[in-house]
Design goal:
Number of strands: 14
Order of helices and strands: HHHHEEEEEEEHEEEEEEE
Strand content: 15-25%
Helix content: 25-40%
Shape: globular
Strand order of the largest sheet: 1-4-7-10-13
Oligomer: single chain
Radius of gyration: 21 Å
Length: 198
């Protein structure tokens, strides 16, 4: 009985911690009750159930939970084999993909359309360590539509900018920037529509 009460207390504490993380990292969320409706909550709940099944070698059930969670969250796909630390946050979430051997540290934030993927099955087979996906250190932030591919390591507190394609290790505290759009002066004349004479 004491073990059950202890597990229940830890689950409640982890849930409150997650809700507080959502409030802290998403300015549009004003309360814990509103945070309950955030896609991160459902994505992590589905991941935790799927991960427990996966570790118990119930792979089909784990995959089913993963697919159901993907549908319910609008496209957040976390493979049940991935390892995710504490205080993980996904902003918006649509189109996020996290592969089977990905390792995510504590206090990591991902924005929408982030991929933590592999190079592809044709290059992944036969790796001695079995790792095919990125490992993110603690405090890493990955901007919208960034793709991190292969068994790379991203150091603690690194910032991966939006639209970045990362194929090699990133040191701690680094900032990876994608090419930014240039603002140029418009040289073509603006067409003005004049009112018709009656």
């Amino acid at each position: 009985m004491a073990g059950l009460i202890g597990r229940l207390r830890r689950a409640v504490a982890a849930s409150v911690e997650l809700l507080d993380v959502i409030i802290d990292r998403d300015p549009s969320i004003r309360s814990r009750s509103e945070a309950l409706l955030h896609p991160t909550v459902l994505a992590l709940a589905g991941y935790r159930v799927g991960n427990r099944l996966y570790r118990g070698e119930r792979f089909k059930s784990a995959r089913a939970v993963c697919m159901l969670t993907r549908v319910l969250t609008g496209g957040i796909e976390i493979h049940p084999g991935a390892r995710i630390g504490r205080r993980f946050f996904i902003d918006h979430g649509c189109g996020v993909v996290i592969g089977e051997t990905a390792i995510i540290g504590d206090d990591v934030s991902l924005f929408h359309q982030v991929t933590l993927g592999s190079y592809g099955w044709w290059q992944d087979r036969g790796r001695a360590d079995g790792r095919r996906h990125p490992q993110l250190g603690n405090g890493v932030t990955v901007g919208a539509n960034a793709s991190l591919l292969g068994p790379i390591t991203v150091g603690d507190n690194a910032l991966i900018g939006a639209q970045s394609l990362v194929l090699q290790d990133v040191p701690a505290d680094a900032h990876v920037r994608a090419p930014a759009g240039d603002v140029v002066q418009r040289h073509t004349p603006t067409v003005v529509q004049l009112p018709r004479a009656s």
